[in-house]
Amino acid sequence: MSDATPSNPSASDSASGAETTDFETMTRDIAEVPAVEVIVTVAVNLMSAAAVKLGLTEEGDQYKDLDEARKLIHALAGLLDAGATEISSFHAAPLRDGLKSLQLAFREASIVPDEPGQGPGEKYTGPVYS
User: Fold this and answer.
1) Left (φ > 0), alpha (ψ -120 to 50) or beta: where does 60 sit?
2) Does the pLDDT value for residue 1 go beyond 80?
3) CB 54 within 8 Å of CB 63
4) Which of 5, 16, 30, 78 has its Cβ near the most Cβ atoms within 10 Å?
5) How far apart are CA 61 and CA 75, in angstroms?
6) What's the CA gap between 50 and 102, in Å, rounded?
7) Which helix (H) or strand (E) holds 90?
8) How far lies 93's CA from each of 8, 40, 41, 76, 96, in Å?
9) Is pLDDT above 90 for 103?
10) Which residues are CB-neighbours of 99 under 8 A, at least 6 positions away?
11) Exposed, middle or buried: residue 95 (CB in 10 Å: 0-12, 13-18, 19+)?
12) pLDDT higher than 70, residue 70
């Protein structure tokens, strides 16, 4: 018998059983969440991450990374563009406002601002002017 063989096989079986139960519980929980809520949650997470990467948090410049912020803002704009017909204007309007605020903050934070229409997400939203 090697050292890699568990001495108590039933203990490892119960651990994998617990993992299966947790996965089933998570799957069931996700299945109960409406698609609109998932889309809005993802959008808010993208907005929060972009704000951190723009240095808009209390920590300021500690986490500032405009390249990362550009990617997050672009992904947020794509999500909102693709999901606009799927979520109501009740949900979409504040998300679009937040996106525009992030785009403007990006433009202000950039040493060499992008041409109008070339900034992050502007492919989906159109030009953002400061």
Assistant:
1) left
2) no
3) no
4) 78
5) 22
6) 7
7) helix 89-109
8) 57, 11, 15, 14, 5
9) yes
10) 47, 73, 76, 77, 80, 121, 125
11) buried
12) yes
Residue 30 CB burial class (10 angstroms; 0-12, 13-18, ≥19): exposed
Q: Which residues of 33-72 are buried (b: 16+ CB within 10 A; e: fewer)?
A: eeeeeebbeebeebbebbbbbbbbeeeeeebbebeebbbb
List, for residues 25-54, the tens digit of each pLDDT value.
878 788 899 999 999 999 999 999 999 999
- pTM for the full predicted model: 0.78
CA distance 81 to 97: 13
Spell out the residues 6+ positions from residue 108 whose beta carbon is closer than 8 angstroms to its own. 130
Which amino acid does the sequence have at 13? D
The structure tokens listed for 33 are 């969440």
